[in-house]
Amino acid sequence: RGATTRFIEHHPESQRLHKLSLESLPGGNTRTLLHTAPFPVFMRKGEGSELWDEDGNKYYDLVGELSAGLYGHSHPTLQKVLTETIQNVGLSLGATNIYEQRYASLLCERFGLERVRFTNSGTEANIHCLAAARKFTGRRKIIVFRGAYHGSVLSFGNGIPENNIDQADWVLLQYNNSDGVREAFSQNDDIAAVILEGIQGAGGFISASLKFLQATREESEKAGALMILDEVMTSRLAAGGLKDMLGIRPDLITLGKYLGGGLPFGAFGGRRDIIDVFNPLTPGALAHSGTFQNNTLMLHSGYAGLSEVYTAEVVQSLNAQGDDLRLRLQRVFAGSKFCITGQGSLMCVHATNIGLRAEQITCRDDVAGVEDTELKQLFWLELVNAGFWVQSRGTITLNIAMSAAALNAFVEAVEEFCKRYRSLIVV
Ligand code: PLP
C-alpha cells in the first residue's frame, strides 16, 4: 500500500489526465498494454534514453517502446533526415517513389530476402503473410503457438478467441514442443503455414530451442507448408536477424518496430515465388493495399537508421550490453521469486510463487497459474517511484542511447528493491 500511495503522491497530474481521458477513451486507454493500476503515467517528452512525465518526474527508459524505440528518443541522424524529408520531399506522395526501392533493397540485402513488401504495422505484415501462405499453398489452416503475439488481432496469449481473426482455422500448439508439431502435421493435411516467433516476445521473452525451430522447419517442409518466422522483435538481435544467428531458413519473415526509424512500420518478405502472389502483373494476384505503407517519412527514417546507425558493430554492442544486464540481474534475483528471461537487448522479468528459474520457462504454460502478479505490480510501482521506466508486464528492451552508468543505476535500484522486500520475495 505504501508503494501505491507514493506512486499517487508523485503523479497528481497523471491522475488528473487519466480522469480526463476516461471521458473519451474506454478505460482512458488506446493501447491495452499501457493500461496500469492505479492509473497510467502520462509521459510528456523523451530525450536520448530519458523520459519526463507530466508531473516533471524523470526516468531512465527501459521500456524502449517495446523494442521499437531502439534508437532512443530524438536520435540526431533520424531528426535530421525527418526534418529534411518534411521540408524537401513532402509527407505522402500518392505515387510510387524511389525511396521504396532504396529501402526495400537494403532490407533484402540485410535480412537475406528475395522480395519484400511494406505495411503500416507488424500486425498487418503477419496478416498479409498468412494470406500469401494460403494463396500460395491453396490450403487454409495455420499452426500457431500458445503465448504467441503476432499483433493485435493475432494474439494467442490471453485466451480470448475474439482477439483472433479466422478463429476456425488455427491449430493451437504448445511452444517448444516438437512432438506436438509432428503430431499436428500427421493429423492435418490442410496446413498452409506455421507462424512463430523465435522468442515469444509479449509472451514473456521465452526463447525457442534450436531443436524446436529445426523440427518446425523440417516438418513444414515435408508437409509442403510454409514456415513464417515473425522477426518483428527479434530482427534486432543480429545483423541478419535471429534466423541468421541460428542458421534457420524460414520461407517468409515479418519485420516491424525499430525498422521504421521511429515511425509506424511493418514489412514481410522472403521467397520470391511466394511474395509474387502480390505481383500485380500476375493475373489473379492478391491485393495488398494501405494508404501509408510507402510514406516518405518512414522510408527515409527507417533507411537512415538501418544504414547509418544500427550497423553490425552497434547490433553487436547493444546486444552484448543486454546479455550483461541480464546476467547481473540474474545474480540479484538468485534464490528469489524473480527471474529474467530473454536474449541480447530483449528481456522480461518474471515473478512466480514457486521461484521458477529462467531455464525452467520454456512456454507460456510453465508460468500460467503460478505468476505472482501482486509482486510484479509492486516491482513495477517501486521502480517507477525510483525513476526507472519499466513495463508493468516485466518487459525490458534496451535502446542504443542508454549509458553504462544508467544501467548500473538500474541494477542498483533492483538490488535495493530486493533487499527492502526480502521477506516477500523469498520462495
Ligand atoms: N509480432 C510481434 C512478435 C510483436 O512483438 C508485435 C508487437 O509487439 C507485432 C507482431 C505487432 O506489431 P505492431 O504493433 O507493429 O502491429
TrEMBL record:
Could you list the residue ranges that cross the membrane? none
- Organism superkingdom: Eukaryota
Q: Which cofactor does it need?
A: pyridoxal 5'-phosphate
Which Gene3D superfamilies has this protein been placed in?
Answer: Aspartate Aminotransferase, domain 1, Type I PLP-dependent aspartate aminotransferase-like (Major domain)
InterPro entries reported for this sequence: Aminotrans_3 (IPR005814), PyrdxlP-dep_Trfase (IPR015424), PyrdxlP-dep_Trfase_major (IPR015421), PyrdxlP-dep_Trfase_small (IPR015422)
What's one Pfam family here?
Answer: Aminotran_3
- Molecular function, one GO term: transaminase activity
Q: Which UniProt keywords apply?
A: Pyridoxal phosphate
PANTHER family referenced in this protein's UniProt entry, alphabetically: GLUTAMATE-1-SEMIALDEHYDE 2,1-AMINOMUTASE, GLUTAMATE-1-SEMIALDEHYDE 2,1-AMINOMUTASE 1, CHLOROPLASTIC-RELATED
Tell me which family the UniProt entry assigns to this protein: Belongs to the class-III pyridoxal-phosphate-dependent aminotransferase family.
What name does the UniProt record give this protein?
Answer: Glutamate-1-semialdehyde 2,1-aminomutase
Source organism of this protein record: Penicillium nalgiovense
